[in-house]
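Hello forum,

I keep getting stuck at the same step: I have a sequence, I want structure tokens, and every attempt I make locally crashes halfway through. Rather than fight my setup again tonight, could one of you with a working pipeline run this one for me? It's a single chain of 151 residues.
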Amino acid sequence: MRFKRTTLILLALLLPCGAPPAGERESLSIAIVVGVGSPNRQVTVDTLRDLYLRRQRVWPDGERAMPVNLPADDPLRLAFSRRVLGRRPVDLEPYWLRLYREGVQPPLVLQTSHAVCAYVAVEPAAIGYVAPDHVDQKSCRVLFVLAREGG
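Reply #2:
Ran it on my machine without issues. Output:
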């Protein structure tokens, strides 16, 4: 019974509720952020993909990596998923169900960019993404910005 409830919760977190037009999703700039106190100074898109798909679960210093996502229907998450992971959140559902059965948790989902900045500010092993104009400069450090596609 507990497994079914947990699986339903996991599916609810992953199911998109609606999507903006494809052009709008893919034209967004995305700032990859860590807390100002994070020891992590750089990351590549390939490493970012591995962190978010949980293929890499620790940072080079051995600390457990803690990637955080926005909700599956958030336009920034849709853009991030397409551009970094190569898939939409809904396309990853079978992947996450398989990994969940193996004991691997998907990235934590936070509801807003403000919540992402607040979380990475207090968790040195966390990494997240927000719109560049939503970066809280007092608590976050931008590792790099994925520029608008086609722009």
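The first strand starts at residue 30 and ends at 35. If your local run keeps crashing, start a new thread with the error log.
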